[in-house]
Amino acid sequence: MVRFSAFLLAILLAPAHAEPMRARTAEDLVATRQQIERDLASDARYAGLAPDQRRLVERALDEMQALLEARGSIDALQDAEKVAFFNAQERANTTLANAAADSRMVCRRERRLGSWLPTNECHTLAERRRAAEQARDDHGRLVRHGHDVESIGAAGGPGGR
């Protein structure tokens, strides 16, 4: 049992996102939570985070805070509470890590339609993913409504030239 607790504590101190949560007490967690909330409000670091993902992070932080406030520190938590704390922390860390990765800017040099001059096109990974999903949805909608997708692309729009 002591081994399990030591192993669990080691895992708790090595979370998945770039700036790991190292809160051992309720006060530590409050400071960490404030920094995460500032980062979420600035939208720079976690721009790819959807509203439902933000709520998931907030719920996980609430759960962690409730556990630490009830017992004072990680060391005082019962084994089942440590597991609940770890799971909440992992949900928050994984969501934040994925959002930070989606906020990474990627640039490509492309020629615009009708021009030989290349331009830089820069978008976050999340923006690129949303644009690809929108294009797939638009294509599917055209196909479902019986439009000839090949002639739309060749002629510049529905109904030909």
TrEMBL record:
Residues 133-150 have a biased composition (Basic and acidic residues). Residues 133-161 are annotated as: Disordered. Keywords: Signal. Residues 1-18 form the signal peptide. This is Uncharacterized protein.
